[in-house]
Amino acid sequence: MSIDWATIIGTVGATASVASFTPQAWKIIRERSTEGLSLAMFALTCLAFAAWTTFGVLKGEWTLVVPNAICLVFALFILAMIALPARKTEEVAETLDPGS
After folding, report:
1. Cβ-based neighbour number of residue 74 at 10 Å
2. Mind listing the pLDDT tens digit for each residue in 22-38?
3. Nearest CA among 48, 95, 56, 98 for reference residue 75
């Protein structure tokens, strides 16, 4: 039985990509602030994930679609939190984590 290194590396990459957005999203929720985050950077990140997701759909490559679609959702959340006025960002964060 041979090890499929491409699948292992792809799985690690997909998992790391998805997980990489979680700390930033939770930091925004906990601190009720997006200070220091770049709207333009997250807009481009969303565009990239949308393009990769679409590419995966067109090619029928679900291993591209699933992680990129999940990353797109996280990136869109962060983008929305950056774009919202500070008062609204606080309201959304309070709704998601009322204990803080």
Report:
1. 20
2. 999 999 999 999 999 99
3. 48
